[in-house]
Amino acid sequence: MTNKELKEIRDKKIKYNKILPEFHRYNWDRYFKLERQDKWRHPRGIDNKTRLGLRGYPKLVKIGYRKPKNIRNLHSSGLLQLRISTLRDLERIDNELKSKVIVTIDGRIGLKKKMEIINKAKELGIEVTNGEY
């Protein structure tokens, strides 16, 4: 599929995603220690209403909420999004993929190396999402 077709599929799926529930851990709003961990954990209690799937309680994570495989890791521009942490990662991108890829620089990278990666990406003709410094 072309980037344009994938972007159209993704946009249709995004409109659908607006009505999808946000999956939070059970009782995340009651306890401070659970609020800090933004992880989903399956409720296991014998009388847990969420586990039983009763009306009025948060939804359980199910496989039916998953996106189609061909649009799963796409950026909003329709390009495949990759996370880069070194110059070597940037140089490993194939010439064929350069037009289909958009790069995100890892947040742990300092300013000096980030500038090097941005300059190298401009030379190679690769787009960077967080390329401002």
What descriptors fit this protein?
about 130 residues; alpha/beta; 2 domains; 3-stranded parallel β-sheet; 3 strands; about 30% helix; Large ribosomal subunit protein eL32
As a whole number of angstroms, the C-alpha radius of gyration is 20 Å
Total domain modules:
2
One letter per element, helices H and strands E, the order comes to HHHEHEHE
Helix content: 25-40%
The number of helices is 5
Q: What structural class do you assign from the helix and strand content? A: alpha/beta
Which strands sit side by side, in order, in the main sheet?
1-2-3
- Return the average pLDDT rounded to an integer: 84
Shape: elongated
Number of strand segments: 3
Protein name: Large ribosomal subunit protein eL32
GO molecular function, one term: structural constituent of ribosome
Organism: Candidatus Acidianus copahuensis
InterPro entries: Ribosomal_eL32 (IPR001515), Ribosomal_eL32_arc (IPR023654), Ribosomal_eL32_sf (IPR036351)
